[in-house]
Amino acid sequence: MIRPRQLSSRSAAAAVSPKSWLDPLRLALFVLMLLTVSRIHEHFGVLSALRPALVLAGLAFAYAFLHPRSLGGTRWLRTWPAKVVVALGIMACLSAVFGISLGGSARTIVEDYSKVLVFAFLLMATIRGTEDLRAYVWAYVISGGVLVWMSLFVFGLTKAGPDGIARLSFGYSYDANDVGVVLLVALGLALLTFHTSRRKGKLVSAVILLGIGVTLARSGSRGALIGLVAALVALLVLVKQVSVVSRLAMVVLVIAGLAVASPPGYWQQMETILRPTEDYNWTVPGGRKEIWLRGLGYMRSYPLFGIGIGNFGRAEGTISERARNWTPGEAGIKWSAPHNSFVEAGAELGVPGLVLWSSLVLGGIVAMGRLRRRLPRNWAVGDPEQRFLYLATSYLPVALTGFAASAFFVSFTFLDPIYILAAFMTGMYICVERKLAVPQSTPSQSSLYKFPPRVISRTPPRTATV
Q1: Residue 145's beta-bridge partner residues?
Q2: Residue 210 to residue 255: CA distance in whole angstroms
Q3: Which pLDDT belongs to residue 466?
Q4: pLDDT score of 329
Q5: What is residue 160's three-state secondary structure?
Q6: Helix 130-153 to helix 24-38 angle, to the nearest 10 degrees?
Q7: 181-193: per-residue pLDDT in tens?
Q8: What angle do CA 121, 78, 195 make, to 5 degrees?
Q9: What is the torsion angle, in degrees rounded to the nearest 10, for the CA atoms of residue 269, residue 274, residue 276 and residue 280?
Q10: Does 458 have pLDDT greater than 50?
C-alpha cells in the first residue's frame, strides 16, 4: 500500500505559490506545449529549421537533470493514468516485435511515439501543485487560440468533393479533420479557464471559444460536428456546479460562431450524417466502413500484440484480403490510415492495447466524475485553488468526451492530445492530494492512485479541509 508523505500547511502552501511555475523548466514546457499542439513553428520556415521543439525538450531534460528538486517527486508514477501510459509504451514495443514489420514499427516509435510519451512524462513529473497544472492548461488553451488565428488569417477555404463543398485548407501537420479533434479538447479546457479566471482570463477564454466555433465550421468536418455536439451535451449534463444559464450561454457562444462562419454548402454536408448508408464511406471498398471492418479483422488475427504500431497502412497493402486477391493490371491498393482511433489501437496493439487506450479516454471520464464526488462540495465555491480543482473534475470529462467522439473518425491513437489529457488527470491526483494533506484531517490516501480513485472516505465532510 502506498502511504504518501504528509505535507505541512506551509509545504502545501509553497507547493501552490502563484509564482511556483515560473522557472526555466516549466517555461520551456509551456512553450513546447504551444509548438506541439498548434504547430505554429511550421508556419515560419526559419524557425522550423531550427527544430525548436527538440531544442526545448533538450533544455527541459538538462535543467531537470541539473536541478532535480525542480521536479514534483515520483508520486506521479503511482497514479493510474501514468501507469496506463507506461503500459501503452510497453505494448507499442511488444507490438513491434510480434507485428508484421519490426522496422516499420521501430521507426514509428523512434521518430514519433517516443516524443509523445516523453512530453507526457515531462508534464506529469513537473506538476507540483495547482499553479503548474493551471499553467499547462492555459498553454493548451492558448495553442487552440493560435490554431483559430491560423484558420482565420493564414489558411483559406478550398472547394473539395464532387459537390464543391468549401472547407478549410489547413496545412502543415494537420488536415481539417485533425484540427477539429485538437480544438474540441481546447473547448473543454477553455471552459475551465473561463469559469476559474478573472476578467482578462474570461475575455481571452470567451474569444477562443467563439473562435473554436468559427474554425469548426470552416473545417467542414462532420466528425468535428459530432464531437462538438457530444462535448456540448457533456457540458450541459456533467457540469452541475455551474448555473444552467451560464452553461447555456457557453453553448450559444460556440454555436453562434459555428452558425455565422459556416461556409457555403456546410449544412448540406452536415445533413449527410443523418444518411450514413448513402455516403461513399459506406459503399466503396476504400471507404471508412470497409477499412474499419478490415481493422477489426487484423485485431482478430493478431489479438495479443496487434500488427504493430504504425503498420496499419502496411497491412492494407500486404495482408488484407484485397491485397491477397490483387492481380497485376488492377488498380493499386491504397495504404490507408485506419481513420478511427479505437480501431487503430485494437489493430496495431491488439486487444490489451485497445483496453488500455480506451481506459484513458472513456475511463478518464468516469474517473474524474468519481473524483469529484469524493471532494468536499464547498470546494465549488471555495478559494481559487479549490474551485479550479473542483471544476476541473467536470471540464476534463467534457474535453475527453469531445476527443472520444471526434477521434472515432481520425487516427489519433498515438498523437499528443490524449496523452496531454492523461498528464492533466495525473496532475489532478497530485494537486488534490496536496490540497487535502493537512495533518489533522488527512484521510488514508493509499487508494488515491488507483482506478477508480478513492480520495477521501465514503462519508466525507462537507466543509473545507484546508
Answers
A1: none
A2: 8
A3: 35
A4: 61
A5: strand
A6: 30
A7: 999 999 999 999 9
A8: 65
A9: -20
A10: no
User: For residue 75, how many other CB atoms are within 10 A of its CB?
Assistant: 22
Residue with the three cell numbers 449534463: 237
CB atoms within 10 A of CB 204: 18
Give the model confidence (pLDDT) of 267-297 as tens digits.
887 888 888 777 777 777 777 888 899 999 9
User: Residue 44, class by beta-carbon neighbours within 10 Å (0-12 exposed, 13-18 middle, 19+ buried)?
Assistant: exposed
CA dist., res. 437 & res. 312, Å (int): 47
Mean pLDDT of 440-448: 41
Alpha-carbon separation of residue 375 from 59, 378, 386 (angstroms): 37, 9, 10
**pLDDT band for position 17 (cuts 50, 70, 90):** very low
Residue 464: per-residue pLDDT: 39
DSSP letter, residue 466: -
If you ran DSSP here, which 8-state letter would residue 5 be given? Answer: P
The residue assigned the cell 510497453 is 90
Using DSSP's 3-state secondary structure scheme, residue 285 falls into coil
Question: Which residue has 471498398 as its cell numbers?
Answer: 285
> 266-303 burial, b if ≥16 CB within 10 A, otherwise e?
beebbeeeeeeeeeebeeeeeebbbbbebbeebbeebe
| Angle at CA of residue 121, ends 351 and 147, nearest 5° | 90
111 C-beta neighbours (distance < 10 Å), count: 10
**pLDDT tens-place string over residues 401-428:** 999 999 999 999 999 999 999 999 999 9
18 SS3 class: coil
Task: Specify whether the CB–CB gap between 397 and 365 falls below 8 A.
Answer: yes
Show Cβ contacts of residue 442 under 8 Å, excluding neighbours closer than 6 positions.
Answer: 6, 436
Helices 341-373 and 384-407: crossing angle in degrees, nearest 10, is: 160
Cell of 399: 474535453
119 residue type, one letter: F
- 3-state helix, strand and coil shares in percent for the chain, rounded to the nearest 5: 70, 0, 30
Tell me which DSSP letter residue 415 carries.
Answer: S
Amino acid at the residue 137: V
In angstroms and rounded to an integer, the radius of gyration of the C-alpha atoms of the chain is 22
E strands along 105-233, which residues?
157-160, 165-168
CA 174 to CA 38: how far, in whole Å? 9
Q: Is the pLDDT of residue 438 over 80?
A: no
Are the beta carbons of 341 and 415 closer than 8 angstroms?
A: no
Q: Please state, in angstroms and rounded to a whole number, the distance separating the CA atoms of residues 34 and 43.
A: 13
